[in-house]
Amino acid sequence: MRTKQSIPKEVSLILHRQRKRLSELNALDKWTEPEFEEIIHCSTEWDIQKQSWIFPLPAIEKLAFDARTPDKQARSLQMIAKYMNLDSTK
């Protein structure tokens, strides 16, 4: 979602719902594919400067090495984290 101007109340409500659902999903022992996709969505953060939702590197790294993350997605996230780390050192 891109907007020209963030609406703090709406962003706050979305973040609250994301945190609540993320807490519920983190309580599970194992994630299904749909639950993992929901985890990805709930792990995004609002970037005030960019005025858009981002998937921050710490969240990527956390999910990349979480035992509940499906293997295929874990490998992809590990590669993404590796390249993001390389990019940030430039």
Characterization of the model:
The chain is mainly α and 90 residues long. It is built from four helices and two strands. The chain has helices at residues 8-26, 33-42, 57-64, 71-88; strands at 45-47, 52-54. Helix 1 (8-26) runs antiparallel to helix 2 and helix 3 packs antiparallel against helix 4. The longest helix is centred in the first third of the chain and has 19 residues, at 8-26. It is flat. The chain starts with 7 loop residues before the first helix and ends with a helix.
Defining key terms:
mainly alpha, 4 helices, 2 strands, 90 residues
Based on CA atoms alone, the radius of gyration comes out at 14 Å
Counted beta strands: 2
Helix-strand sequence = HHEEHH
Strand content: 5-15%
Task: State the distance separating the first and last CA atoms.
Answer: 28 Å
* Poorly predicted ranges: none
What is the 3D form?
Answer: flat
Secondary structural class: mainly alpha
Query: What is the number of helices?
Result: 4
**Average of per-residue pLDDT values:** 90
Largest sheet: 2 strands, antiparallel
Adjacency order of strands in the biggest sheet = 1-2
